[in-house]
């Protein structure tokens, strides 16, 4: 428990003591040196492997244990992250193509749904209502539809101009 609470003696990692631990017998010294070389080689290989992948990472997440409740609490402004270099640039380059593809797939699905569920007369009634041409008890108005392209995708924007002020509620 002292290791996780943050006692002075337990602040170092569990492998740090082995690098500086005195070894007295020659056979133990040989084994220890071989173990040290393996550890250093493994760390260098891990670093080279990460650089080859183009991955950056940081392990700076801290946590503390509350003594009275034994609950673990994460320290603010500490974090772990892993990031592949160039991922954001690649995502920005492909964003336009992805948006176009998704818009096209949605448009195809929507047209299929309309053909199965909406009659021509229903479509006309909805368009008349959107444009303010319905003959119901509505405030007289003039609606215009403007088609603009946002990131290469056509978007319909409606603007309503009232011929007289609508009654306040």
Automatic annotation (TrEMBL):
InterPro entries: Sin3_C. It comes from the Eukaryota. Residues 12-82 form the Sin3 C-terminal domain. This is Paired amphipathic helix protein Sin3b. It comes from Acipenser ruthenus (Sterlet sturgeon).
